[in-house]
Specification:
By secondary structure, the chain is α+β, with helices and mostly antiparallel strands. It has 2 domains: 198 residues, v583 domain like (v583 fold, Alpha-Beta Complex), CATH 3.90.1700; 213 residues, Enterococcus faecalis V583 fold (Alpha-Beta Complex), CATH 3.90.1710.10. It is built from 16 helices and 17 strands. The strands form 6 sheets. Strands 7-6-3-8 form a 4-stranded antiparallel β-sheet. The protein has a 4-stranded antiparallel β-sheet with strand order 11-10-9-13. A hairpin with a 5-residue loop joins strand 6 and strand 7. The mean pLDDT is 93.
Length: 470
């Protein structure tokens, strides 16, 4: 036996930190391991988690779900109108970001965007009239995700709005998204002034038809190769889309010039996209939804197929539990704020754009976009560390999306609820920040994490769903 009392001990302490502090006080050497029991200490959750880890049913289901996600081929093939293309958009229906939420519970930016959309549709002449309609139940609200759609920030889609149609040619599913308005005072951040409505009308009457004419000539545009190229050029296609928007414009401008569209309309289209580095966001989102919806509904799979926020709740969907949302209060993002604003002015996290992180992009691919940290906070080293950390909570990696600064390693993808709960490592999300009051717009951007509670809630239902077959 070693003579332990006379040796210099080096202790790795797992558990309460004061144990290591006592050792150091006594002159010893100790390294504290920051560890917590799986399931946040809840015994029932921990038992269910133990039954899911290395479970052959879950492993087989995840292999199927991840393959469907990875093999998906999203292409943008047309621009339509929400009422014509999105199921159930007849009448006074408005879609919003995140899990379903009632009007009375909505945050300021979402309410502001809905009021603006109501006036835009001509259902009301003033914002005050629009508010009365919403309060009286004259408008039907639903989640974009329930209608094969996604929307950034407030995520508002009303019947007259033009929408991109993105088709997964490998599996046949479709996803929709509106056209991106740009930054600042825009509807998706809750702004609803005359300037905002005028822009929306121009997008409907001029921009959308011109883009449609361009697409008629280019034919369907595959989005995964474009995203992959943008990652090599410094984008992560959530908060930085400068390269992707330029690559898209390069394709569209040729098609537009070969179309019958008026030269002035082509010029205004090109000028608008060239001045809007976020334009591609509204294509990266439905592309990611197309990939993930293909993986949704695989019995027994623990793969996350959507993360979305409605400004009140952060919601998660799981492949093996297709009819359920798991929600927790949405965090207020502590990021970089525009001059004159602070965290006290910020609304809670909002938007469907976390679908990019769910697909292995955005915050998961920040290593490809060191410039993004200037916009959302942190350092290039932080961006690398975040992308590496995500490997611990995913089923695999997307070989089509590689990160140059990590020696072209594939981006981690396929968030696994089991691994999130077991490790306590939370999915990273980088996001814009809206003012908590309607009508103000964007006030900053930052980095946040999905709440652990969303994943904890899903463990026992998933275990119950397979318990009769395991």
């Amino acid at each position: 036996m070693p003579d332990l009392p006379r040796e210099s001990l080096k202790v790795a302490n797992v558990g309460l930190e004061f144990f290591s502090e006592n050792i150091e006080t006594a002159g010893g050497s100790a390294i504290h391991v920051d560890w917590k029991p799986p399931g946040d200490g809840d015994a029932d959750t921990a038992r269910a988690l133990a039954a899911l880890i290395n479970n052959p049913i879950v492993e087989a289901a995840n292999e199927v779900a991840f393959d469907r996600y990875h093999s998906a081929n999203p292409v943008v093939d047309s621009i339509g109108r929400a009422r014509d293309d999105i199921p159930g958009m007849d009448g006074r229906t408005i879609l919003h970001a995140g899990a379903p939420v009632a009007w009375k519970d909505m945050c300021g930016p979402m309410k502001g965007a809905i009021l603006g959309a109501t006036v835009y549709e001509g259902w009301a002449q003033t914002l005050a009239e629009a508010e009365k309609m919403a309060e009286n139940g004259e408008i039907t609200f639903d989640s974009c995700h329930h209608r094969n759609a996604v929307g950034p920030m407030a995520g508002i889609i009303s019947p007259s709005m033009p929408v991109w149609k993105v088709t997964n040619t490998e599996h046949g599913n479709i996803a929709y998204c509106t056209l991106n308005e740009g930054l600042g005072k825009v509807l998706r951040f809750g702004a609803n002034s005359e300037e905002v409505l005028k822009r929306l009308n121009w997008m409907e009457k001029v921009l959308a038809p011109t883009l449609a004419s361009a697409l008629d000539n280019t034919g369907p545009i595959e989005l995964k190769p474009l995203i992959a190229q943008a990652l090599q050029m410094g984008d992560e296609v959530h908060n930085r889309n400068a390269a992707a928007s330029s690559l898209l414009l390069k394709k569209l401008i040729i098609g537009a010039l070969e179309s019958d569209a008026a030269q002035n309309d082509i010029k205004s289209m090109a000028s608008f996209i060239a001045g809007n580095d976020h334009f591609f966001l509204n294509l990266s989102m439905p592309a990611c939804k197309c990939m993930l919806d293909a993986a949704h509904g695989v019995a027994g799979s623990s793969m996350v197929t959507a993360m979305a926020r409605n400004g009140v709740m952060f919601g998660v969907r799981v492949s093996g539990l297709p009819d359920m949302w798991f929600t927790s209060p949405a965090p207020v993002v502590d990021g970089l704020f525009f001059p004159g604003y602070s965290r006290d002015d910020a609304a809670a996290d909002i938007g469907d754009s976390a679908i990019t992180e769910t697909a292995g992009l955005g915050g998961f691919a920040m290593a490809a976009s060191p410039a993004i940290v200037q916009f959302v906070g942190g350092s290039p080293a932080d961006a690398l560390a975040q992308s590496l950390a995500m490997r611990h909570i995913t089923i695999g990696a997307n070989s089509q999306f590689t990160l140059p600064s990590l020696d072209f390693a594939p981006s981690a993808a396929g968030i696994d609820i089991r691994k999130v709960v077991d490790t306590g490592i939370l999915p990273t999300v980088n996001t814009g920040i809206a003012h908590k009051q309607a009508g103000v717009g964007q006030i900053g951007a930052g980095i946040t994490s999905a709440p652990l509670d969303c994943f904890l809630q899903a463990v026992e239902p998933l275990h119950n769903s397979i318990s009769g077959n395991s």
